[in-house]
Structure formats: C-alpha cells, structure tokens
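Give me the fold.
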Amino acid sequence: QVQLVESGGGLVPAGDSLRLSCAASGRTFSSYIMGWFRQAPGKERKFVANINWSAGTTYYADSVKGRFTISRDNAKNTVYLQMNSLKPEDTAVYYCGAGQGRGTYDYWGQGTQVTVSS
C-alpha cells in the first residue's frame, strides 16, 4: 500500500523558515516525479515544486523560486521542501504527490498546514 506522509508544518512569523518532509512507502519511487503542491482556503491546489527522484532535477513555481528548495534522501525514502523567507501568502495546506510524469500524480499525502503570520 502506497503511503505519502507529510510533516513539518506549523505557524511561523513572516521571514522565518520551515522544512516539510514527505515520507514515501509502499513501492519503489526511483522512476517517479515527486511534487509539492499547496492549497489556500477557497482556492484550487497549485504546483510548488517537483523533483525527479532518480535524476535529481528540480522545477519550481515562479512564486517560490529562490526561496524554496526541494530535495530527496534516497536512504530515507523522503522528499523535503525547505522554505525560507516565508510570506503570509505562502499560507496553505501543503501536499506531497508522486507521479510518473506528464503532469499527473497518482498518489497524494494528507497534507500539512503552513501558516505564516504578518
């Protein structure tokens, strides 16, 4: 059974940092694209960043470029999202997803809340 479990969210003041984790289990993810998405209240889910698990190549939404970094730890089967210089507009539920490319994601975690106060 595939599971993606996010953790690391919380309430922080603007300018602070958080690191989100996504622990993946239940299958081999070496051929997968791992992505982070976020959904603010009343808005649709939006792409934040992704990483090709085997190649390590990354891609970011313009709104987070230069502030967020996605990475993975093969030994721990975990993907991270380091978020620096957080802004109130980063407030959202952050979700981890796994897919095999072409923009589709087959598996999702339950989400972790990030709240940035002004």
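The longest strand covers residues 18-25.
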